[in-house]
Amino acid sequence: MKSVICLVVAAFLAVTANAGIVITEVMPGSLHDTGAANGDWFELTNSGATAVNITGWSWVDNSTSHAKLVFPSMTIQAGQSILCLDESAANAATFRTIWGIDNSQVILDKTVMGDFHGLGKSGDGVFIYDASNKLVVSYSWANSTDGFSIDVYGGGASSVIGVNGAYASSDPIPDVASPFLVPEPATLIILGLGFVALRSSKK
């Protein structure tokens, strides 16, 4: 019986580990007049209760002509967000300054990710695949508003200052977004383990 419970728990952990990775925000059209910080970007967040190793994972937009771009070998901790940015490493520093992002936050610039696929303002998508090429999560949009990120966590509306942590950047022509500001993740793993324990107690 113990071996069965262990297998169920192991399977649950494997499923929730990947399921915890979600796309929480997308910026398809910046208004920044600072050319060093107006690149498209999207944010991934580990909403689960356990770390997820994304080594070998990749992403692509909805264009069939684009090759998948592979993430670097890394682990996203529970509750952690990372940001994929269409800027060089040097320009990413300016991006951090404009948004007030410290160096402890992980930004994967195109120096690391390769040629970033530009995100279309009038319809596009982000598709994340695991190391076995299985789709983990995706998000598509039909349109967006220049200068406002898409608050995927908030249901896909344009970001609004003060909602889900959104604020205006310090650029003379600011954008509105909430990079690295995501509500605390749900502890799905705890609920799952509780379910397993309940089932075992009935045997």
Helix and strand topology:
Elements: H1 2-19, E1 21-27, E2 41-46, E3 52-53, E4 58-60, E5 69-70, E6 75-76, E7 81-85, H2 89-99, E8 106-108, H3 110-113, E9 124-129, E10 135-141, E11 150-151, E12 157-158, E13 167-168, E14 176-177, H4 188-201
Parallel strand pairs: 7-8
Antiparallel strand pairs: 1-2, 2-7, 3-6, 4-5, 4-9, 9-10, 11-12, 13-14
Helix pairs in contact: 1-4
Describe the structure.
By secondary structure, the protein is α+β, with helices and mostly antiparallel strands. The protein has a domain at 28-42 and 55-70 and 83-178. 23% of the residues lie in helices and 25% in strands. It contains 4 helices and 14 strands. It has helices spanning 2-19, 89-99, 110-113, 188-201; strands spanning 21-27, 41-46, 52-53, 58-60, 69-70, 75-76, 81-85, 106-108, 124-129, 135-141, 150-151, 157-158, 167-168, 176-177. The strands form 5 sheets. A 4-stranded mixed β-sheet has the order 1-2-7-8. A 4-stranded antiparallel β-sheet has the order 5-4-9-10, with no helix packed on it. The protein has a two-stranded antiparallel sheet with strand order 3-6. Strand 4 (58-60) and strand 5 form a beta hairpin. The longest helix is centred in the first third of the chain and has 18 residues, at 2-19. Mean pLDDT is 83; it is low at 1-17 and 186-203.
